[in-house]
Write a structure and sequence with these properties.
heterodimer, A: alpha/beta, 2 domains, six-stranded mixed beta sheet, four-stranded antiparallel beta sheet, 14 strands, B: globular
């Protein structure tokens, strides 16, 4: 499968934080959910992909091209939603359309108007007077209106109500239907990712600790809830992490079926991304 | 790059009401008291352009701008061209109203005076603005503002010291050159400063992380 985005050994050092050999691939026609707690390195990784930060080690390829050297060509085909970074709030959606016509070769004013209507955004209202959710909708409309092939979205649905979120998720799914377009989607709303992501990449403290298909993750990983006695019988190599609760242990297992065969435990819960994050970050080994 | 200029112009349009009111007040003062209104040029041009930097900074536009095609280069280039455009438009307006004020009060149009003072003010305005931009790109508008005041204050102190220390009668020949070719030299100097300032700003912006 051809990759639309390849991140190889991305390393960026700051005084108190660093990205350590971050690597993952996003194939064409797929949505990748990018998860991790606050400060784990999601936004820094996205900024490196978009050339907002430089002086990193490693290689980033987008559409098979070097993200830094071929930046201008690449950016014609990327749509971006960033957390709190956008057009100045004194502008209106009409002003954005006015400017973007001469920024992107493929800017489609009628498509932009279509999204404005779909999201009930007033074209002449200044951004400052939009609610947080409406601003997000405007950012999404702007990201989609030049027919990009890759969407890079950092918290695109924060501040949106469930109805609009569902609407936006439908748009994202429609976006990848031609199997030529992909989405890298960073979000804390993990239920959205569970619904639409084909891949999940999990970053913690600047390191990728998991990058796999959603099918593999949700079919193979599981949570075993057991008492102290049963937990003590488990071999440490048979589970990833565990968390001790008041009355029971939550144990994260990587291979549900193998675990079932070995320990004859019939009840292994399906994993959610929230469970995965909590156990991977707060759990013990 | 045109898109980036359009974005800056749209921002200026957003503040147009305030700008028009200010302009009308100053022009009215000029008509009422026969005051020279050339000072509007640097005042308004600098105010207009610094406000675009402030809005950009406040909304983290620069981080978004670099994700757009040729964002780093076009963003800087557009700022310089918009500055030139704004200075030019304000200059034309000031020249027009200066002429009108002169005509209303004396029934004659002192073209010579207007044609001498306004271009010098225009070049000075451009010079001041382009000198500020590398600092703004390096440190951001808020920090640069303090730096700019510091530099202006420093120039004033150095200037006043030079006036006290230098015997100007000994360098009279230099003044005669200035008298003959002053405007031309000033024009060349401003254009050279503009090119150097642009190159420095671009270099800073190309390497900047947001």
């Amino acid at each position: 499968m051809e990759n639309i985005l390849e991140v190889n050994n991305l390393t960026k050092e700051y005084d108190r934080f660093s990205l350590k050999n971050v690597s993952f691939n996003l194939p064409k026609g797929m949505i990748m959910g990018f998860i991790g707690e606050n400060g784990a390195g999601k936004t820094t990784t996205i900024k490196a992909i978009l050339d907002i930060i430089q002086n990193y080690r490693g290689e980033i390829k987008i559409f098979g091209l070097n993200s830094h050297e071929d930046s201008a060509m690449i950016k014609e085909d990327i749509g971006v939603v960033l957390d709190d970074m956008f057009f100045p709030e004194i502008l209106t959606p009409n002003d954005i359309n006015f400017a973007m016509k001469n920024i992107y070769k493929n800017w489609d004013s009628s498509l932009f108007q279509h999204y404005l209507e779909l999201f009930s955004l007033e074209p002449k209202k200044i951004i400052k007077n939009f609610s947080k959710g409406m601003r997000k909708k405007l950012e999404i409309a702007t990201a989609l209106s030049h027919h990009p092939k890759l969407l890079i979205l950092d918290e695109p649905t924060s501040g949106l109500d469930p109805v609009v979120r569902a609407e936006v998720m439908d748009i994202f799914q429609e976006f990848i239907q031609n199997e030529e377009c992909s989405i890298l989607l960073s979000s804390h709303i993990t239920t959205d990712l569970e619904h639409i992501a084909d891949y999940i990449t999990f970053i913690n403290d600047g390191e990728i600790i998991l990058s796999t298909t959603s099918d593999e993750l949700f079919n193979q990983y599981g949570i075993v809830k057991c008492g102290k006695e049963a937990f003590q019988k488990l071999d440490t190599s048979d589970y990833v992490k565990y968390k001790k609760n008041k009355y029971e242990y939550d144990v994260l297992v990587r291979d549900k079926k193998a675990f079932q065969r070995k320990y004859h435990m019939n009840v292994i819960d399906k994993i959610t991304l929230d469970d995965l994050m909590v156990l991977m970050i707060k759990g013990e080994k | 790059m045109i898109g980036f200029i359009k974005k800056d112009l749209a921002m200026i349009k957003g503040n147009m009401k305030v700008l028009v009111i200010l302009f009308i007040v100053y022009v009215a003062m000029g008509f009422a008291s026969e005051m020279n209104i050339s000072f509007i040029l640097p005042f308004m041009s600098v105010m207009i352009m610094l406000s675009t930097f402030s809005y950009d900074d406040f909304n983290k536009w620069d981080a978004y701008a670099v994700t757009l095609p040729n964002g780093r280069k076009n963003s800087v280039r557009a700022k310089y061209l918009t500055t030139f455009l704004i200075v030019l438009v304000v200059t034309i307006l000031v020249m027009f109203f200066e002429t009108m004020i002169s005509y209303v009060h004396n029934n004659t149009i002192d073209f010579e005076n207007v044609l001498l003072t306004v271009p010098i003010t225009m070049l000075s305005t451009l010079l001041v603005e382009v000198m500020m931009y590398p600092a703004i790109y390096k440190w951001g508008i808020e920090k640069a503002r303090i730096g700019i005041f510091g530099v202006v204050f420093g120039i004033e102190i150095v200037g006043s010291l030079l006036i006290k220390l230098i015997d100007f009668s000994k360098i009279a020949s230099a003044f005669s050159i200035l008298e003959n070719y002053g405007l031309l030299l000033f024009m060349i100097g401003t254009l050279l400063s503009l090119v150097i300032s642009y190159k420095i700003s671009l270099k800073i912006y190309q390497r900047k992380e947001f």
